[in-house]
Amino acid sequence: MSLDSATVRRIARLARIHLEEAELPRLQAELNGILGWIEQLNELDVTHVEPLTGPTQMALKMREDLVTDGNIREQILANAPDRAGDYFAVPKVVE
Amino acid sequence: MRLTELTLAEARKRLRGREFSAAELTEAHLEAIAALNPRLNAYITVTEELAKSQAEAADQALARGDAGPLAGIPLAIKDLFCTEGVRTTAGSRILAPFVPPYESTVTAQLKRDGAVFLGKANLDEFAMGSSNMTSAFGPVENPWKRKGAEAAKLVPGGSSGGSAAAVAAQLALGATGTDTGGSIRQPAAFCGIAGIKPTYGRCSRWGIVAFASSLDQAGPFARTVEDCAILLRSMAGHDPKDSTSADRPVPDYEAACRRSIKGLKIGIPREYRAPGMPAEIEELWERGMAWLKDAGADAQEVSLPHTKYGLATYYIVAPAEASSNLARYDGVRFGMRVESDDLLELYERTRAQGFGPEVKRRILIGTYVLSAGYYEAYYLRAQKVRALILRDFTEAFSRVDVLLTPTAPSAAFEQGAKMDDPVQMYLNDIFTVPASMAGLPAISVPAGLDAQGLPLGLQLIGRPFDEETVFAVAAALERAAGFTHLPQIRAGV
Asked: Do B364 and A8 touch (CB under 8 A)?
């Protein structure tokens, strides 16, 4: 499978990364190089193999559904690039 | 002897014997950093004031007699661990302004035990790389030099390149790292020091900037195996804030370093031979087998038939997880922002300028393999191959106690090499990735020099949560190798 430039643009849109037209050819070649190399996995027959989602097969621990922190508004907002009062600020999205 | 030359264990003993103070030990390291860091670039941020106040507190605790196990020990912290009130960049422009209001669990435990934080160590951007060349804060120079080519700057490996270079150049007694596909073991090998990635779940991931959550694991670097054991004991343990951290007791790893390896079965996986691997790595591997046999262990060949698929599997799973984890960097809640009147454009421009080329490549690959129509062909298939890789190890460990392999297929290479083709860079991790995919503990031990005078490492891989056997065999390997070489660039030289 080889990615055409329209597909690279579509993926970049999905990933919310702006691409300059001039970056496209090189990026397309690099991504196709990586995907071509990955194709080696098609040599394997995995028909009856259960997928492994993570290395530990242990059951995840449950915890009490309790609030353990809170009232740290200033800490949460401390790194905001822009704020309006107690809110994160973004450009207007509703006309 | 300079204070910066001591092992961590020796420094701990002498601090307790009041032969010198934590303040003096810290000062010696800060002076060495001031002298060498402008050249090596191992630290992104030096926390001089914090280090001095922690050293003072350690001296008071030592005087009172209630000092923690790491009281007064100066460490470098990979700049992927969130540190309260200290800028944490992940080596990325997008996090350049980020000052965490909280402390990661691993660093909190090191603080609890009295450690001194010298600063935040350089790394590949978001821990994605094998050379430290992708850092937005510039490359790190490996303190080792090729014989007869002293002007050439070599890479320290990556992603924890700054941590490894700092420990090798004696700018810290130890360091924290993280390992997703080899990011502790490969730089340890390139810099002639020891580094262990423990079992997935042994250390809490809480407060570590996430790359690939089913693979990321914290671990220590130090100049000896015993020093790694001391650090890991403080770093490890269950954390209610990370549901994937294991609720098991943390053993005394230091004691495990003194265990006999008589009768242990060492597996030699026949597939760990890379095309074009230098003969001297193969020879060192054979010497490693001989050393362990001399120490009373038995060696036997084993087969891990899916080894060759480890890297390709990794380069589906890790980017997929990364594309999801890195979605949080949108210029809204923290980190840098590129202003725009349009929200979508704000996201896209922020991420375009905030991320470097390797991070973008991996986000795009990850987005693609998870996208509708391709999920089964790539991601699901990779998860199935991952199951086969784990099965290989499980079968091997029914017959042997630990596996011995080379750590990397080459010694350190020059800055700028392998940059034209991403796949060439990825091949660095060919021997470290399989243990990551299976979540197994693995250590790199410095074992010899190549013909050009550069360090080479051997890797030991153990059963899940059996770091003790890994430490026992690593310590035996270290004793037999007698690696006492030092890099040309180091404190006081």
From this structure: yes
Q: Which CATH number is B232's domain given?
A: 3.90.1300.10
Contacts of A47 by beta carbon, 8 Å cutoff, 6+ apart: none
Given the residues B183, B234, B410, B444, the one annotated as active site: B183
Q: What is the pLDDT of residue B360?
A: 98
Contact: B422, A34; criterion CB under 8 Å:
yes
Q: What is the pLDDT of residue A36?
A: 95
Q: What percent of chain A has pLDDT over 70?
A: 96
Chain A residues with beta carbon closer than 8 angstroms to that of B246? 56, 58
Provide, rounded to the nearest whole percent, the portion of chain B with pLDDT above 90: 96
- ipTM, two decimals, is 0.95
Domain ranges of chain A: 5-43
CA of A65 vs chain B CAs: smallest distance (Å): 13
Number of domains in chain B: 1
Mean pLDDT, chain B, rounded, equals 97
Give the residue from B11, B1, B87 showing the smallest Cα distance to B335. B87
Chain B residue numbers with beta carbons less than 8 Å from the beta carbon of A11 are: 364, 367-368, 371
Q: What is the CATH number of domain A5-43?
A: 1.10.20
Instruction: Give the mean pLDDT of A64-79.
Output: 93
Contact B385, A41 (CB under 8 A): yes
Sequence-distant (6+) residues with CB within 8 A of B344 are A16
Residues of A in contact with B349 (CB under 8 A): 18
Q: Tell which phi-psi region holds residue B468, choosing left (phi > 0), alpha (psi between -120 and 50) or beta.
A: alpha
Can you give the residue range of the structural domain that contains B43? 1-493
Alpha carbon separation from B31 to B28, B172, B191, B268 (Å, rounded): 5, 11, 21, 44
